[in-house]
Amino acid sequence: MQVKKSPLILEEVFVIASNIISIPESEESTASINEFEIEIDFDIYSDESDADARRVVVSVSGNDSEHPAPGYCFSIVAQGTFNYDKETKIKKKDKDVLLTHSAIPIVIGQIRSYISTLTALGPFGSYLLPSIDMNHLLELKKEQEQDLPTDDEKE
């Protein structure tokens, strides 16, 4: 099948911050290796000089750094820069869907690859970040934003 190019243009993706350590098994350990919760958060920023430019920043953390389970403990922050094809007319709603269902997963995919590559030579072998339920992640983000006080409420 011949694919149609997306009007969402990926300009670059890079890692902003990274921390990965290995937690050895101990006699008290009850969890399996790399059996821990994953935390993901993201933010989308606009560019004042270019109305269509977007910066998508995603942070992914695995394992509780305070009480880590055996395996890897990591925190990665990556940023993707995106734009839209200037020659294609796109509705605002469609732009939002492209950001949430394409841009964010692209950055998460880059983080997945980064973690896998860095852990490949580690004591527990390559760690592959599991698939993410994007609909659930977006619901959680929406709930989180609804709980935040507005500027008027802060005063």
Helix content: 25-40%
Give the N-to-C terminal Cα separation.
56 Å
Please give the CATH architecture.
Answer: Roll
CATH class: Alpha Beta
What class do helices, strands and sheet pairing give? alpha+beta
Along the chain, the helix and strand elements come as: EEEEHHH
Q: Quick one: CATH superfamily?
A: SecB-like
For the largest sheet, list the strands in their spatial order: 1-4-3-2
Q: What is the number of E strands?
A: 4
Q: Please work out how many helical segments DSSP would assign.
A: 3
What does this structure look like?
The protein is α+β, with helices and mostly antiparallel strands. It has one domain (8-25, 32-125): Roll (Bacterial Protein-export protein SecB). Helices cover 30% and strands 34% of the residues. The protein is built from three helices and four strands. The protein has helices at 92-119, 134-147, 151-154, and strands at 8-23, 38-47, 50-62, 71-84. Strands 1-4-3-2 form a four-stranded antiparallel β-sheet, covered by helices on one side. Strand 3 and strand 4 form a beta hairpin. The longest helix has 28 residues, at 92-119. The radius of gyration is 18 Å and the shape is elongated. The chain starts with 7 loop residues before the first strand and ends with a helix.
What does this entry show, briefly?
The protein is α+β, with helices and mostly antiparallel strands and 155 residues long. It contains three helices and four strands. Strand 3 (50-62) and strand 4 (71-84) form a beta hairpin.
